[in-house]
Design goal:
81 residues; elongated; 4 strands; two-stranded antiparallel sheet; two-stranded antiparallel ribbon; 2 domains; 22% strand; alpha+beta
């Protein structure tokens, strides 16, 4: 099916193609071997005590933005709720 890139760099996909993904609003886009691959995704916000723990650690530790991913991994490994 033919798709078009708009002046704002948006890709217009045919209705017939998206009909198979009615319940999906988000897609992961990546390059694989010179092709664009779209994978339907379900986005769920991280909420609850785990997120609170991460926010507390970031706020009190005066960490750099580059360290946030490591803090998140550490909280996950520790199995904190």
């Amino acid at each position: 099916m033919l798709c078009k890139v708009t002046a704002k760099n948006q890709l217009t996909l045919p209705k017939e193609l998206l009909a198979a993904f009615k319940n999906h609003e988000y897609f992961d886009a990546r390059l694989e071997k010179g092709r664009i691959v779209l994978e339907p995704m379900i986005v769920r916000p991280l909420v609850g005590e785990r997120l609170d723990t991460i926010r507390e650690r970031v706020a009190t530790a005066e960490v750099e933005e580059s360290e946030v991913a490591d803090i998140i991994s550490e909280v996950r490994r520790a199995g904190r709720p």
